[in-house]
Amino acid sequence: MWTQIKLAFHKLGSPLIFYRFAQTLIPWLWGLTLITLAAGLYQALFVVPPDYQQGDSYRILYIHVPAAWQAMATYIVMTILATITLIWRIRTAEIMAMTAAPIGAAFTLICLVTGAIWGRPMWGTYWAWDARLTSMLVLLFVYLGIMGLYAAFDDRRQGARIASILILVGVVNIPIIHFSVEWWTTLHQGSTINLFGPSTMDASMLPPLIWMTVAVKLMFGALLLQRARNELLDQDQRKKWVLEALRMGGHDS
Predict the structure, then answer these.
(1) For residues 99 and 146, what is the distance between their CA atoms, to the nearest angstrom?
(2) Least C-beta-crowded within 10 Å: which of 38, 40, 67, 79?
(3) What are phi and psi of 171, to 5 degrees?
(4) Which of 138-169 are b and which e, b meaning 16 or more Cβ less than 10 Å from the residue's Cβ?
(5) How far is the CA of 162 from the CAs of 158, 165, 166, 225, 232, in angstroms?
(6) In whole angstroms, what is the distance from residue 152 CA to residue 157 CA?
(7) Quick check: 199 and 206 in contact, CB under 8 A?
């Protein structure tokens, strides 16, 4: 079993095998994203009742919470990929780590913007230097720093390795974000949602959150594979395997 996993792991390091794997999986991921997103948005907007205190304004959490979770999950994925990059020097891992950064930055920005929109009527202000908000802002800056550091090198492999070190340093911010509402007194409410245990949120409000969370994760997978595939093609555009892959299956940018 372990030998088969190890073999599959190393096979995905082959540009051609990774390209074919991504090319096959991307349409399925986008299709499932659309289905789950439609189900989640419909339930969030038309099925679940208004909150007894926040009214309809709470519905923004169905975008805010999955985006926040995915912003942190993306960084964890990048940390794993960065570790693989530094230890085994697998180029597809380098590419995926670097192409994941803009996706993570986008989810972090969505989290911050939707949080600000929700915060105005709830807190009376769009922004407060709250521990949770500030640590999420730091996460956005770390994402931007990784992107800038990678772009600063003409040698993309060298840039990926240097940026991977920053990824490993920046991972310390993830537990700070998660536990900030427990470690400090903050405006941000504590955890009311637990998908795998007791939750203080009304049970009728959980299904759309689950649908939206799944949709966001599927979207991340599709975007990551699509961006990594395109980056790999760009880097290897003059190599024989690219011509072979394009001749066999075509390529959608």
Answers:
(1) 10
(2) 38
(3) -65, -20
(4) ebbebbebbbebbeeeeebeebbbebbebbee
(5) 6, 5, 7, 22, 19
(6) 12
(7) yes
* Residue-wise pLDDT tens digits, 152-186: 999 999 999 999 999 999 999 999 998 887 776 66
Amino acid making up residue 181? V
Assess contact for 150 and 78: CB atoms under 8 A.
Answer: no
Q: Which two tokens stand for residue 120?
A: 């105005």
Residue 194 to residue 171: CA distance in whole angstroms = 23
DSSP characters for 72-105? Answer: HHHHHHHHHHHHHHHHH--HHHHHHHHHHHHHHH
What is residue 94's predicted lDDT score, i.e. its pLDDT? Answer: 96
pLDDT tens track for 9-27: 666 788 889 999 999 999 9
